[in-house]
Automatic annotation (TrEMBL):
This is L-threonine 3-dehydrogenase, mitochondrial. Signal peptide: none annotated. Catalyzes the NAD(+)-dependent oxidation of L-threonine to 2-amino-3-ketobutyrate, mediating L-threonine catabolism. It comes from Entomortierella parvispora. Its EC number is 1.1.1.103. Coiled coil: none annotated.
Amino acid sequence: MLRSTTTSLLASAKMLRQPLASTTTPFQARFRNAAAAASTSRLFSISASASSPPPPPQHYNNNGSTKTRHPRVLVTGSLGQLGSGLVKELRSMYGAENVVASDIRKAPEEFMANGPFVYADVMNYSALERIVVDWRIDWIVHYSALLSAVAEKNMAMALSVNMAGFQNMLELAKVHRLRIYSPSTIGAFGPSTPKDNTPDLTIMRPNTIYGITKLHNELMGEYYREKFGVDFRSARYPGILSADTPPGGGTTDYAVDIFHHAVRHGHYDCFLSKDTRLPMMYLSDCIKGTVEHLTYPTPLPQSVYNLAAVSFTPEELTKEIQKYLPHFTISYPDEARPDFRQAIADSWPATLDDSMARKDFGWKEEFGMENMVKLMLDKIQAQVAAEKKNATAAEAKNASMAA
Ligand SMILES: NC(=O)c1ccc[n+]([C@@H]2O[C@H](COP(=O)([O-])OP(=O)(O)OC[C@H]3O[C@@H](n4cnc5c(N)ncnc54)[C@H](O)[C@@H]3O)[C@@H](O)[C@H]2O)c1
């Protein structure tokens, strides 16, 4: 049973990589022509963006109109760890008015000042449709989700937000002919997936709610692309590190928390074992890869790509931090009583093969372990210094008022 399911998954996945060879549907024919055109334009459209600034803003021609303009993008879940950075980048490319940020939480003042922000619950199809129509949206970046650790504790909500919410966005993309980018995750793999250098196409039997919902979405996106011609794009992100935005409840969150604890307290109680190797990436690389993928002018050979940068264990990360903070110490859980996130981490790959993303849209990371650790520490040390300065100023003000 496992073998036949896996074989059929592999076979259908293989077919996705062969649309240039034998295709029949109108979308596939369109895709074949577009892909042929892309292969000649790839050199100047993508590889230039791999090392420095993002690609220049594209002019967008929707439905054969003679007027060109920038695409108008709706970003869901934009107040999360990844959304605000992506919104900022897209606004610098396309103009603030062309990027509509959304979430179900109140945005901070400074976020509201930088461009349109609307309430959008991904469970409410008609409210979402109204936003698409009112704002004349062309592309959706769908970031709303419950991450691995949170999903495991809230199964019903994870099924709703991650699957029904995604289905709403996919349906909107179909009805209104939108491009849709919705990230997947290393969590879509499972314990029977080969752990090292895990390729795009392999055994996928996730055993977490997060992974199951994300694999479901990958397959639904591929189905909508084949059946209805929806321009569905997705990348399997590794754990993302950022100093400015807090992580949203994933299993890789330790790799962010450790820096805050190292700088503020000199010690960290890690919830994973010291030798748990997981793929990771610095936030700006994630944004760069996402923008390169999202803006690629034509549909790519695959709907879903692995995206990778570095892989490390808590012990290796600790050693790198100790180069700057030699007194930093770390402790690990008792092996007999592991944290519930250990089982999740153990079901994920240790390293990813992302060679197809590198080949097909020019993906290349800028941050390795060393420059990422240095930057995280610099940023958090600057935050702590600013907090101290503000606290001292507030104390002085209180003292002068009391006098
Ligand atoms: N951060 C990572 O390390 C990582 C790794 C792999 C994949 N991803 C994927 O990237 C995407 C963004 O992740 P993130 O880290 O920014 O997540 P996050 O948890 O930080 O943010 C998710 C956002 O979704 C919003 N949201 C929740 N329910 C909603 C609803 N019903 N309607 C609208 N919005 C709702 C939340 O308010 C939150 O702001 C997700 O799809 C996630 O699965 C993230």
